[in-house]
Amino acid sequence: MTSPSVTVAVLALALGYVLGGWLRVEHVRHRRRWLSLGAGVSVAYVFIQLLPELREAHGKFLTATAHRNLPFPEHRVMGAALAGFVLYYGLENLVDWSRRSMREKGLTQHSKQVVWLHVGGFAAYSLLVSYLLVDWQDRGTGAVALYGTAMFLHFLGIDHSLRREHGSAYDNEGRWALAGSVLLGWVMGSVEMLSVEVLATLQGLISGGVIINSMVMELPKEKEGRFAPFCLGAFVYSILLILAQA
User: Fold this and answer.
1) Contact indicator for 179, 17 with CB cutoff of 8 Å
2) How far apart are CA 210 and CA 58, in angstroms?
3) What is the dihedral of CA 84, 181, 44, 159, to 10 degrees?
4) What's the pTM value of the predicted model, to 2 decimals?
5) Who contacts 192 (Cβ-Cβ below 8 Å, separation ≥6)?
6) How many whole angstroms separate alpha carbon 109 and alpha carbon 111?
7) Strand, coil or helix: what is 123?
8) What are phi and psi of 83, to 5 degrees?
9) Pick from 127, 146, 190, 234: CA 20 to 30 A from residue 136's CA?
10) Residue 231 C-alpha from the chain's centroid
11) What is the dihedral of CA 145, 229, 16, 4, to 10 degrees?
């Protein structure tokens, strides 16, 4: 049974995808500033909360597997983080290659295979984020709220990027697949949590994904960026995270 705070956080994450087209307020003045603010929050979460969490997950993994003769256990969690980083960096490069191929052929849309590979990669990503959120309920409402807020803004950045990349193909079907994956991860976590060592490995995997997606997808590109809102989001959320840890 999940706590009410986790339930609210999961529903908010799912609604972020469902209502992302409305929440991104494309026709509202200064929308780019809000996106940059959200990017700053996500990056602050990476450096203040996520990286220390990786160290904690590393310690849990070593403790849980001390009696087992696993190969290179001291590198398992960070290796998973590297795998997540490389996996989503590779996915981004695949889409970039498809985009260049489209331009050369005079096409305006990615192939269905590329669209669903891109969306599917983030569906798996969203499922894991939601699944691991259930594990946070023992840390209290405040911790869940900070994690949920950071991931909500992170998901809005993903939603904005996917909608801009794939247009109606994402808006008609893709966003529902992502919202469904969030709910599925919640259900799976509510039914049964995996062992400590598997959770630590999954945390490493998703951490690598959050890091690369925060940097590649949410950081402003070319002349779209708004440095001041980005710094404001990073600074304010860093303070909130530090106070929460204290």
Assistant:
1) yes
2) 17
3) 100
4) 0.88
5) none
6) 6
7) helix
8) -60, -45
9) 234
10) 20
11) 10
